[in-house]
Write a structure and sequence with these properties.
alpha/beta, zymogen, about 15% strand, hydrolase, three-stranded antiparallel sheet, Rossmann fold, 4 helices, Caspase-1, apoptosis, thiol protease, disordered N terminus, about 350 residues
Length: about 350
């Protein structure tokens, strides 16, 4: 197969917006905390307070116990590494889908779950973005792979920003109680911290920020999978040798009747390339990332967990592909490295139901 033959790509196409032209966006490019000055120890209420040195603080601490005049030893507490205060300290509740110490997610619900695929080939002229030839192959391959994994798949072509927003909000409001997980994929042009709909750009976190456990409780404790095939910048990867890195897993041995999880647990977000770099697509066979993913899912879904499969996908993209554009020497023989972010706390097995 083409994937096992390095340097056999006939035409390489980049998944970048290139120069942004009019710069039409709906999202700010500012980083969180950009422009924030140094820490200031402000006491707005006149009460005793604790200093935290971070950009955000989750929860609200109680005042000192009544009768404490400040002479006793202060209570030992955990500090956060952020500045600012988020949340009210209220405890959200959701059904516990699996025992706290389980090493695997509960994938035995009646249904696998919903999968939305947002495929973009054509864009509004004002964006000055090229047609994404070959994306129809990605759409087909990913759709078929997800169906084989048991997902209820809906694929959409060339939606506007507001249409995407509507689909995502509808998915958030869906009752996922009988579902194992959820999957959302975007195949489009992109740039640093930006994805492109048909008419506007938007920040990628728009896709997943409302799927947290507190905002979508029927998905609490369940895997939430996001796959992004798009550029994240304009840099080219010249390639270099890779070294092995071993990782270990830490287990706990408690046996609670209930337990609390972070709201941002259970996400897997996979980008086709690292931040700042191009993502390549063959105009006939589709993108390197989606080619690899379809092959790996079809071959290993009955044998390996999701994160292990994504590691194989990353290896195949990194080692089995190289751009072949001799007519454009500055684009020739370039590499690509997928970028996978995980807050999964268990293994995800997508074996057929």
């Amino acid at each position: 197969m083409a994937m096992e033959q390095p340097q056999m790509e006939l035409i390489g196409t980049i998944e970048s917006a290139g120069l942004l032209g009019n710069g039409i966006t709906l999202a700010s490019l500012d980083q969180a905390g950009h422009g924030v000055g140094g820490m200031e120890k402000l006491n707005l209420t006149g009460e005793a307070y604790e200093v935290v040195d971070a950009l955000s603080f989750f929860g609200k601490k109680d005042k000192s116990p009544e009768g404490n005049n400040g002479n006793s030893e202060p209570e030992k507490m955990d500090d956060g590494d952020s500045k600012g205060f988020w949340g009210t300290g209220a405890t959200n509740r959701a059904v516990m889908p699996v025992h706290m110490d389980s090493e695997v997610y509960n994938m035995s619900h009646p249904k696998r779950g919903r999968a939305l695929i947002f495929n973009h080939e054509n864009f509004h002229p004002q964006l000055d973005l090229g047609r994404r030839h070959g994306t129809e192959r990605d759409r087909h391959n990913l759709t078929e792979a997800c169906k084989k994994l048991g997902f209820e798949v809906e694929a959409f072509d060339d939606l506007t920003y507001h249409e995407i927003l509507e689909k995502v909000e509808k998915l958030i409001r869906t009752d996922h109680s009988k579902h194992d997980c959820v999957l959302v994929a975007v195949l489009s042009h992109g740039d640093h911290q930006l994805l492109y709909a048909k008419d506007f750009s938007y920040k990628p976190d728009m896709l997943w920020q409302s799927f947290t456990a507190d905002k979508c409780p029927t998905l609490a404790g369940k895997p939430k999978i996001f796959l992004i095939q798009a550029c994240q910048g304009s840099q080219l990867d010249e390639g270099t040798k890779l070294a092995r890195v071993s990782m270990s897993r830490t287990e706990t041995d408690s046996n609670p009747q209930s337990y609390r999880i972070p709201n941002h647990a259970d996400f897997l977000i996979a980008f086709s390339t690292v931040p700042g770099y191009y993502s390549w697509r063959n105009t006939t066979n589709g993108s390197w990332f989606m080619q690899a993913m379809a092959e790996v899912f079809n071959k290993y879904s009955t044998k390996k967990d999701l994160l292990s499969m994504m590691t194989i996908v990353a290896r195949k993209v990194a080692l089995n592909f190289e751009s072949n554009t001799p007519s454009q020497p500055h684009m020739h023989q370039k590499k690509q490295m997928p970028f996978i972010t995980s807050t999964l706390i268990r293994d995800v097995y997508l074996t057929p139901k």
